[in-house]
UniProtKB/TrEMBL annotation:
Domain FecR protein span(s) in chain numbering: 157-240
GO molecular function: sigma factor antagonist activity
Domain Protein FecR C-terminal: 299-366
Name of the molecule in the record: Ferric-dicitrate binding protein FerR, regulates iron transport through sigma-19
Record-linked Pfam families: FecR, FecR_C
Species this chain originates from: Pseudarcicella hirudinis
Length: 373
């Protein structure tokens, strides 16, 4: 994809498709990256440096203890401190790179631990924080109003800033009558859909079973029942960030105006495993087209290159699709895909050109050998 032209070394190191090629290469991924380097030879040195760093930071797929994770982080920092007097350093098995990046890499080692290639998994510190709904509500200094949905039908709740919350049966939410201060905070137990009024100056935060969802103005769903082991956040429009309440930088992430933590875009979701304190990013089960594209997009194709078809789908659903544009440009497709769901579209496309796809870290990766002329 053309987005790789804008990548620096850090972007490549944390890109799942790139790491998969380095650590667990397949014929398709190998062809993709080799062709990409041929197409953009000026990036060859950057790619090689990123490959070297990925191998240096390679971790086992088995779960590691907190102490083992700390040892890996400490070892990485020690490597940087040994050379801190120099602006750059070289060492067998490692690339020349500044100390600042090594510190960033050390901080991110815990994110890599336990990575599976179907999704991206983030581990966060297991601090002893009581994050039950009752405890959070009782600890807040604001006077809160609680709404409980005791009915079968969804219950709409209008907040003072104009935001709309739709509670499912048995769910409850606590919120102030008027939002004051630099942020808008609500507390959820159960499941609700949020339509948040945009206000970049005052972030909107939802606290639910140890997970904090932060937005500036968007729509999303949160499922956080006390009896469930997982908390799920699904994004419909806009962008949201999520982070665990045990995060040591929780105050900074909650108060600033930027979206930090794991950032989700439309049709992506995050699953927070409460017991393991782990965040897993993927796509929602039934992605939908974004509203701005729904009215103008047609999916009727006749001898259309598959590369163009995939680009149209990528734009319509606002999801990243990774594929070899040059390889699939020679594959024509004639099909009517208008009334099909996203994954149904992909299944037909892949069958037509003998390809397959996987969901990796909220992205769709297409594997194909191309088409013979």
């Amino acid at each position: 994809m053309k987005k790789y032209l804008e990548y620096d070394i850090e972007d490549f190191v944390w890109d799942d498709y790139f790491r998969q090629w380095v650590l667990i290469p397949t014929r398709e991924s190998d062809n993709f990256w080799k062709n990409w380097i041929v197409q953009y030879p000026e990036k060859a040195k950057l790619i090689e440096d990123a490959r070297t760093l990925v191998k240096a930071l390679k971790v086992n797929e088995q779960s590691l203890s907190d102490q083992e994770i700390q040892n890996v982080v400490r070892h990485t920092l020690e490597l940087a401190e040994e050379k801190e007097a120099a602006e750059n350093f070289e060492q067998p098995g490692f690339i020349s790179i500044n100390r600042k990046f090594w510190i960033q890499a050390a901080a991110a080692v815990a994110i890599l631990v336990g990575l599976s290639w179907g999704v991206k998994t983030n581990f966060v510190p297991k601090n002893s924080v009581n994050v039950s709904y009752e405890k959070l509500v009782s600890n807040t200094s604001s006077l809160l109003t609680e709404t409980l949905n005791e009915h079968e039908n969804p219950l709409p709740v209008k907040l003072s800033d104009g935001s709309l919350v739709i509670l499912t049966k048995g769910s409850r939410i606590s919120y102030p009558k008027t939002f004051s201060g630099s942020k808008r905070e609500v507390f959820l137990s159960g499941e609700a859909f949020f339509e948040v009024t945009k206000n970049p100056e005052k972030p909107f935060l939802v606290y639910a079973n140890g997970l904090i969802t932060k937005v500036l103005g968007t729509s999303f769903r949160v499922r956080a029942y006390e009896s469930d082991k997982d908390v799920t956040v699904e994004v419909k429009t806009g962008r949201v960030s999520v982070f665990a309440q045990s995060d040591p930088k929780i105050k900074e992430k909650a108060t600033n105006r930027e979206l930090e933590g794991v950032v989700l875009t439309p049709n992506q979701k995050i699953i927070y495993a409460r017991e393991d304190v782990r965040l897993t990013k993927s796509l929602v089960e039934a992605p939908v087209m974004i509203a701005t594209e729904k009215s103008k997009q047609s999916f009727e194709f006749e001898d259309t290159p598959v590369s163009e078809v995939l680009l149209a789908i990528e734009k319509a659903y606002s999801v990243d699709i990774v594929f070899d544009e040059e390889l699939l440009a020679n594959c024509p497709l004639t099909a009517s895909l208008t009334d099909l769901q996203l994954f149904e579209k992909l299944n037909i496309i892949c069958k037509g050109v003998e390809a397959r796809y996987e969901i990796l870290d909220g992205q769709i990766v297409i594997y194909s050998k191309g088409c013979k002329q």
